[in-house]
């Protein structure tokens, strides 16, 4: 990977980590799925309108539209539904641990669908990264009252599965469709179930509109969603999924840093040890951690 690609991936992970405090703050001002649907719609409309203004081509053929629908239902519908609802039941530490099993799930699925094989070094890196995540979240695991959060765990698993499937499909269509148009359309497609469920189960009129909520919504939609997905699609056009996905283990590190800087959170020794494990894991997977099916066969 080039330095520019690595910088793009790190920026994606930093913006994804910033989404967690923004979602938490926004949930005090709007119903869960209404907030999620507004995020998806605003991000999707922004990217689609920009793509149209730049005369980017629409996807051609039913297979490409079908794959975009799968991405939308996975990353946007299931991903946002699980992420926004889990905040009601699960502490951020446990949510981070479960959500970051996604690279492990994606590694298995990528081997089947994309022909990407993990080397011994790559396998060691993913395992080490997951151990690091467990270490980072250890204080939250032993906190009182965590045993009753089974619903939140289920929502996070749902989100992780949705993102896993969508990442594999994104890699499959990368280079075949325009990134701006593809990501805008998948968000619009994925927002449809969110809008319908929110309309049926919540009261969108109860949103507490204010400069604070508008600022949170704009930051989450434009930076944490539209920009992130465009950058991520661009990365997957030139990088194996497993190597790029390994950097998602950085998200808890960025999250802890944001908490320490802005919310006076302190780091305990298991979290510091976990940060070291995560950095080593990213290094192992990003440097010759995968090989294509052709190389395996050769």
Automatic annotation (TrEMBL):
The chain crosses the membrane at residues 35-54, 66-87, 93-114, 126-143, 149-170, 182-201, 207-232, 244-263, 269-286. It is found in: Membrane. Pfam families: EamA. InterPro entries: AA-Vitamin_Transporters, EamA_dom, EmrE-like. It comes from the Bacteria. Keywords: Membrane, Transmembrane, Transmembrane helix. Its main location: membrane. SUPFAM superfamilies: Multidrug resistance efflux transporter EmrE (SSF103481). Signal peptide: none annotated. It is a multi-pass membrane protein. Residues 6-136, 151-286 form the EamA domain. Belongs to the EamA transporter family. This is DMT family transporter.
């Amino acid at each position: 990977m080039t330095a520019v690609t690595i910088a793009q991936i790190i920026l994606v992970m930093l913006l994804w980590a910033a989404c967690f405090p923004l979602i938490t703050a926004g949930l005090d001002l709007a119903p869960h799925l209404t907030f999620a649907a507004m995020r998806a719609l605003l991000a999707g409309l922004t990217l689609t309108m920009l793509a149209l203004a730049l005369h980017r081509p629409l996807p051609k053929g039913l297979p490409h539209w079908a794959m975009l629908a799968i991405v939308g239902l996975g990353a946007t519908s299931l991903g946002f539904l699980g992420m926004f609802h889990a905040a009601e039941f699960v502490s951020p530490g446990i949510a981070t641990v479960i959500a970051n099993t996604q690279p492990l799930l994606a590694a298995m699925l990528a081997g089947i669908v994309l022909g990407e094989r993990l080397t011994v070094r790559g396998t060691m890196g993913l395992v080490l990264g997951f151990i690091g995540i467990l270490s980072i979240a250890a204080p939250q695991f032993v906190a009182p009252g965590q045993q009753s959060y089974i619903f939140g765990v289920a929502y996070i698993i749902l989100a992780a599965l949705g993102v896993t499937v969508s990442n594999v499909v994104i890699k499959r269509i990368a280079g075949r469709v325009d990134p701006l148009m593809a990501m805008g359309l998948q968000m619009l497609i994925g927002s449809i179930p969110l809008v319908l469920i929110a309309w049926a189960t919540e009261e969108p009129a109860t949103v507490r509109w204010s400069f604070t909520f508008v600022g949170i919504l704009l930051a989450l939609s434009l930076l944490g969603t539209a920009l992130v997905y465009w950058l991520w699609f661009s990365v997957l056009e030139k990088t194996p999924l497993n190597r790029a996905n390994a950097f998602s283990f950085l998200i808890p590190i960025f999250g802890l840093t944001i908490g320490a800087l802005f919310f006076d959170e302190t780091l305990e020794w298991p979290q510091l040890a976990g940060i070291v494990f995560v950095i080593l894991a990213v290094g192992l997977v990003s440097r010759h951690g995968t090989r294509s099916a052709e190389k395996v066969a050769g």
